Amino acid sequence: MPSDLSPDSPADPPCTCTALRRAARSATAAYDAALRPASLRVTQFAILRILARLGPLPVTRLAEEAALDRSTMGRNLDPLERRGLVHLAPDQGDRRARVAALTESGAAAIEAALPHWRAVEAEIGARLSPGALASLAALAPRS
What we know:
Layout: H1 16-35, H2 42-54, E1 57-58, H3 59-65, H4 70-82, E2 86-90, E3 98-102, H5 104-127, H6 132-138
Antiparallel strand pairs: 1-3, 2-3
Helix pairs in contact: 1-5, 2-5, 3-4
């Protein structure tokens, strides 16, 4: 490969994609660690919060709200359903689809996790420069 095209050239800035992926993995690990006392992972916590905010949703819509694909959402819902934090039932309008609903135990899990989430949220937020979160959010427009 010619030296001017080398991806490791010291003249090139760091890869933005790589930096964002590392930051996302680091943030996810921090949230997961903070939520460990509540026995939740950050993705599970986010799913519970979406259901608390929007009410029962078809799984496909829930996946869209959480920015997950449908099969990943299914894998995330299984342990939440086993723990009784969500209830899955056939959609009355389309019996092939399922609707996810937050249970009372799920609402209690959110309450137990909120202090841990707020602490890590403040910690990570303090490390971001003003406007950084809005700029990052703008990279991923809602579908």
